[in-house]
Specification:
Length: 130
């Protein structure tokens, strides 16, 4: 009987823990890999669409935890904003090892080999959660 009472008193706490967001349970420190592409022909909608389609193929790589593909947002122009790029790729990995698998993955290698003719500049920012 005592065990049942103890269980019933902790039951609400167990229910609350099950409803907490994952971040509150165990915060994971991710590696963020943000890539910016500048097209050789920035006025070409065809080249833009080709690059976006090609970037989408990277989503198949198993070590990716998050992928966002974008173009410059129509936000207010300010000195701190660089909207000169054509396409951005924002990804997240569990750790450096996952990132390294991605870099050497055949899908990524093929992406670079078959699409690098589209861009004249690429800038990458890698960061780790603190």
């Amino acid at each position: 009987m005592t065990t049942r009472r103890k269980f019933l008193t902790i039951l609400p706490a167990i229910g609350l823990a099950a409803t907490l967001p994952l971040e509150a349970k165990a915060e994971k420190k991710l590696l963020i890999h943000h890539v910016y592409f500048w097209l050789k022909n920035p006025a070409s909608k065809e080249d833009l669409n080709k690059l976006i389609e090609a970037v989408n193929t990277l989503k198949q790589i198993e070590t990716l935890r998050m992928v966002r593909i974008g173009v410059p947002a129509p936000t207010q122009k300010r000195d701190v904003i660089d909207d000169s790029y054509s396409v951005s790729l924002l990804t997240a990995f569990d750790d450096v090892k996952g990132h390294d698998v991605y870099q050497g993955h055949p899908i990524h290698v093929k992406f670079v080999e078959t699409n690098s003719y589209l861009w004249n500049k690429v800038v990458v920012y890698d960061s780790m959660d603190v």
